[in-house]
Amino acid sequence: MNVAACRRTWVTALALMGSAALALAAGPGQAILPPGSGSPGHDSASGPVRIDGKSPVTLPLEIVATTPTRLPRALARSAEGALWAAFQAEEGVMQGAGLARVLPPPVLPVRGPGRAGWRSDKVHALLPAADDAVLAATDHGLHRVEADGKTTPLGEDLPWHLLAAAPDGTVWMAGIDADHRLAVGRLDGSRVLIHRAPGRFREILRLFPQGPSSGASHHHPPPLSPVEEPEQGSSPGRSHSPQTVSLAATALVVTSDGIHEAGPTGLKALPLKKTPLFLPPSHSVERRMPPIWLYDAARTPDGSLFLIGAHKTLVRRSGGRFEVVGAGHFSELCAGLGDQELLAADFDGRLWHWDGRRLACVDRGTDRRHLRHLTLDDRGSLWAEEDAADGRPHAIVRYDPPYTDGPRARASLGLFPGLLSPGVLALLGDGQGGCLLSTNEGICRVPPDDSGPQPLPPLPDPLASPGGAAMSHHIIRNIPMAHCARGPEACPKCRALAAAGPRPCLLDIAPPDQGMVTRRVIECLVDGVKVWREFDIVRTFADEAEARTYAAEHGITDLELAPPGTP
């Protein structure tokens, strides 16, 4: 065994214990293939289980509100704790649709402006504002609703579908009208500056503000200031060119067939024909499929834009450049809390994690069809709706960082959604470690539990010692063993070692040999012949004592200080 080569290896990745799949070379632009079947990550009889053998914590499902109707849609939670929800009218009921403040009690229904109110309007998106108020994007323009129910229309009577706030508090909105025309607006006091894009568009997907200090945030945006009264003789129903909007403020709007950048001079379409997002008709399985067909997009805190679609790759836009960072048929994206951190679900129910260097499948989901509504809360936990493949009701599952141990908590919804019953319509963290969701049975809450992650202070670089030298790491690895070059087919000792399975060992290793790390293979000498063995990283530790403690807690008794060579 070439121990010197092992000591030059630096491992930072976390992987599933017991996996024997080879991890291919994974730098930027490549992906880790999904693990094969038979992983300890799932148990078909009891549903998902954690990697340590424990079943997910079962959490209750609490009904928060069923009024004004049982059909809530969009949700918004203010920093002060007020919960607003948009409601759809029930069949045969004219009254009751629109908007309501659900928390704190009692429920406050909001009729909406005009004689008819919001009973025939759709409220598509909500954004919390200061003083427990909320901004509502409706089919008939943008409205600000105060905590007492007072409603003020803002800007023109245009359909808005998305709302988002930049880190500096600038509010952006985007929508597509009945003629499939795209409009993007920016709020300045009680006025809205509107830009329109030429052409027609299919569907609007995401809106990402990017101000002078752009970056995605999963925390509450700065409180929006109260509405300024319009000047004498002006009308709040018309847009005015604002004089105080920052010229550096921009936003990205992603539709299913394009990307537009909104700025002071209007909307600019990004050229996509020579990017990985473009699928020539000659390469399309169905020739009539459009060349650009995006499914979802996410923006990480460092400003990188990730996109998925019919091109069946994960594409990153950073610094104005598009590049493929992974391959797969992904269905939904969710930005993580860290720079370049991304979570993705695919159409086979698997969960993937991108850490800035490589894409890895962290949960195979062998007993599920889909993961939907990926939502990250303030603590970094990922919440999602699980569509099981074995006939079990839909459930809400929670993954905790680093997301590799399977679902840590699960709450059954008791729903079997069909074509006309989508089940979960919106999912939102409650700010206390739980989550809020709107379903066809009302607004529900999944409370937190003690197993959830707690906020941690920033940690120093684990590789940097006080003197500036690189510190070594102790890790536990599983290495398949062999007695000689003949292998299990010809050698009884090799056959016995193969039957015993990979052997865990403890290594003291240091940087900077990245090549061996990304391939996850180690150089061994068997009968004087250099061979390469696949290995599985279990976990990285700060020191040997921490590794020994982990081994004792998980029943690992035959831990060695160096990878064993030929027995």
Descriptive notes:
The chain is mostly beta strands. Among the domains are: 3-30 and 461-553, no CATH class; 293-452, Neuraminidase (6 Propeller). It has four helices and 40 strands. The protein is globular and about 85 Å long. Mean pLDDT is 72; it is low at 1-53, 212-247, 454-472, 509-520 and 563-567. Helices cover 5% and strands 38% of the residues.
Average pLDDT rating = 72
- Highest CATH level, the class of the domain at 293-452: Mainly Beta
| Superfamily (CATH H level) name of the domain at 293-452 | TolB, C-terminal domain
Indicate the proportion of strand residues.
35-45%
Q: Which strand order does the major sheet show? A: 3-32-31-30-29
Helix fraction by DSSP (H/I, runs of at least 4): under 10%
Distance between the termini: 11 Å
Query: Which parts are unreliable, with pLDDT below 50 for 5 consecutive residues or more?
Result: 1-53, 212-247, 454-472, 509-520, 563-567
What does the main sheet amount to? 5 strands, mixed
Number of strands: 40
Number of helices: 4
The shape, in one word, is: globular
CATH fold group of the domain at 293-452: Neuraminidase
* Computed structural class: mainly beta
Second rung of CATH, namely the architecture of the domain at 293-452:
6 Propeller
Radius of gyration: 27 Å
Topology:
Elements: H1 3-7, E1 42-43, E2 47-48, E3 57-58, E4 62-65, E5 72-77, E6 83-87, E7 98-103, E8 108-110, E9 123-128, E10 134-138, E11 141-145, E12 151-154, E13 162-165, E14 171-176, E15 182-188, E16 191-196, E17 204-210, E18 250-255, E19 258-263, E20 266-269, E21 294-299, E22 305-309, E23 313-318, E24 321-327, E25 330-335, E26 342-346, E27 351-354, E28 359-363, E29 368-376, E30 382-388, E31 395-399, E32 409-412, E33 424-429, E34 435-439, E35 442-446, E36 473-479, H2 492-500, E37 503-509, H3 514-519, E38 521-526, E39 529-534, E40 536-541, H4 544-553
Parallel strand pairs: 3-32
Antiparallel strand pairs: 1-2, 4-35, 5-6, 6-7, 7-8, 9-10, 10-11, 11-12, 13-14, 14-15, 15-16, 17-18, 18-19, 19-20, 21-22, 22-23, 23-24, 25-26, 26-27, 27-28, 29-30, 30-31, 31-32, 33-34, 34-35, 36-37, 36-40, 38-39
